[in-house]
Amino acid sequence: MQTLYISRQGCRLSLKQEFLQVHSGETLLQEVQLPLLEQIFIFGCSQVTTDVIRACLQRSIIIAYLSQLGYCYGRIMPIHRGYRRLARLQQSLSAEWRLRTAVQIVRAKLLNGRVLLMRYLRSRATESGSLVVDILEYLAAEALRAESPEQLRGIEGAGAALYFPELGNCLKQPGFVLLTHTRRPPTDPVNAMLSFGYSVLWNHLLALIELQDLDPYQGCFHMGSYKHAALVSDLLEEFRAPTVDSLVL
User: Are residues 95 and 157 in the same domain?
Assistant: First the structure.
């Protein structure tokens, strides 16, 4: 099954028998067999005909509306799929299960940061590099032995305090310095790039979580509130180093 991404602005989606047609003005850009589709992502401003919406509802094909940067405004889905079934299951998860999941999230974050540093330190060795890499490995092992969320957050915080200054040591471009991670607001160009990358990734994760019928506010590691989508922040942790941090470097 496929996902159709409509990122060009001003497109029009129409139906011709069993084919979904994507037009830009009078030009036919793409034609997709409707039975092969599982979901349609529309980024920005494009039009969808009523025939397409009805056919997608009949075939249980989700239509999601997102901003151009990937923020999910909402989705169209058939009634028979139900709503928030997985979200209700999330709410019944035990504290022990949440802690075990949080442990794996923190461990993956520490190990992914370690791998990224090792890759760059091969060509640009620093005085503290090998020690930081060893400590991150030690903290990842300690995460497996964490007995409470508070202990786990302490381990994660210790890893971040070591990781970001060493990430700064990997920078090669003159004038770019990273001493620590700052946000709201970022205090230097490197932190500004990191924050922007994390924000883009955060919005994409939020959209994907919504599309899977999960509750983004029910997390395992971060504390959730009506203003903080904790599950999004949880999943973001593992992807910071291999996606955003490596791209910034």
Answer: yes
Rg (CA), the chain: 22
Range of the domain at 38: 2-82
- Quickly tell me which residue has 């994409």 as its tokens: 204
pTM across the whole model: 0.70
CATH no. for residue 16?
Answer: 3.100.10.20
The Cα 209–Cα 229 span in angstroms is: 10
Number of compact structural domains in the chain: 2
Query: How does pLDDT run along the chain (249 residues), one tens digit per residue?
Result: 588 989 899 999 999 989 999 999 999 999 999 999 988 989 899 999 999 999 999 988 888 888 887 777 878 888 766 556 677 787 878 889 889 999 999 999 999 999 999 988 888 777 888 899 999 999 999 999 998 999 999 999 999 999 888 988 888 888 887 777 777 777 788 888 888 888 888 877 887 887 777 888 888 888 777 778 889 999 999 999 999 999 988
3-state DSSP assignment of residue 35: helix
